[in-house]
Design a protein that fits this description.
This protein has helices at about 5-15, 25-30, 35-45, 75-90, 100-110, 115-125, 140-155, 225-235, 250-255, 285-290, 300-320; strands at about 50-55, 60-65, 160-165, 170-180, 185-190, 200, 205-210, 240-245, 260-265, 270-280, 295-300. It is α+β, with helices and mostly antiparallel strands and about 325 residues long. Strand 4 and strand 5 (about 185-190) form a beta hairpin. Helix 1 crosses helix 3.
Length: about 325
């Protein structure tokens, strides 16, 4: 059976997880009676841990809101989850302020872990392999990210300086609908108050973001993630491709996601969908069409028909080798 000191630390860990815990709940988790729980709470308050007593039907104990405890207590599973999250963040580019912050956070957590836990995690991380290469992404500024999040939450306009892909800088006021992480980058989507158009901006290109007085109402049923991925599918590229493919939306989306192509019902041809996409190069499309293993028709451009015929001829020749 755990010693009293161990149960006091377990009590602290339970309270750290947030919310109000009833005496009955704490007693059950600790394997003691209610009187002993109250004694353990007294020991925590003697150590200047601000435990509050909440009265009423749903009363119990909780930590004072906003209080940060000096020791960070993590179980083995929690430590593993945090470290793997930091590693994944570095690999996918979903970190802020560069890689330094996640690396130092990983080092701090590793340093305070018990030796046997640290050794087990080292073994895991050393044996862990990724199928993708580490992303080389420009990370957004943490202050910009938090400012935009606050603007989205409180529906407040935000002023910002933005540097476009061509290097030109502009001052903009944005009614931000949401923040989206997609393919290793951070984006914010919303209405550009200057042009009145819905726009999507990369967070790593935003500087000096600050919230403004006033408020706005976003459109009903807004889906920021869908806006971002559909924006990629309709962006301007060298070629505009139109296809007709026999199959379901799920079958086609398995190879042509929403960030690549738009789908619509092909009127008059049941079971067929019209697929539209834009591309700078066409050479990747024939292999994708082959992997779909569905009947298809190429409407435009003519160059894609020639490429697909050449690809099919090459595959046929390979089968005869």
């Amino acid at each position: 059976m755990p010693k009293p000191a161990g149960r006091v630390l377990t009590l602290l860990e339970l309270l750290q997880s947030g919310g109000t815990r009833t005496v009955a709940e704490l007693a059950e988790r600790l394997g003691v009676d209610g009187r002993t729980v109250r004694r353990y709470v007294g020991q925590l308050t003697d150590l200047d841990v601000p435990v509050e007593s909440v009265r009423g039907r749903y009363g119990g104990y909780r930590l004072s809101p906003g209080y940060r405890l000096p020791p960070l207590m993590l179980s083995d599973d929690e430590a593993l989850a945090v470290l793997l999250g930091l590693v994944a963040g570095r690999r996918t580019g979903l970190v802020t302020a560069g890689h330094t912050a996640s690396e130092t956070a990983s080092a701090k957590i590793h340093r305070v872990l018990p030796k046997h836990v640290a050794r087990r995690l080292d073994v895991l991380l050393d044996s862990l392999a990724f199928t993708d290469r580490p992303g080389e992404f420009d990370t957004p500024d943490a202050d910009v990210l938090l400012t935009l999040a606050d603007a989205v939450s409180h529906r407040r306009p935000v002023a910002m300086r933005y540097t476009g892909g061509d290097g030109r800088r502009s001052e903009r006021t944005l009614h931000a609908y949401g923040i989206v992480a997609h393919s290793g980058r951070w984006y914010v989507t919303g209405k550009d108050a200057g042009s009145g158009e819905d726009r999507t901006f990369r967070l790593d290109r935003i500087a000096d973001a600050r919230t403004l007085p006033g408020s706005f109402e976003p459109p009903e049923g807004i889906d920021p993630a869908q806006r971002v991925v559909s924006g990629f599918a309709t962006a301007g590229y060298r070629y505009e491709v139109t296809l007709r493919i026999q199959g379901t939306t799920e079958q086609i989306r398995a190879r042509l996601p929403a960030s690549v192509a738009t789908l619509e019902e092909d009127a008059g041809h049941e079971g067929w969908l019209r697929v539209r996409l834009r591309a700078e190069h066409l050479d990747w499309i024939p292999p994708v069409l082959a992997s779909l293993d569905r009947p298809f028709t190429i409407e435009t451009p003519e160059e894609l028909r020639a490429l697909t015929t050449t690809f099919a001829t090459r595959l046929t020749a390979y089968t005869r080798l």
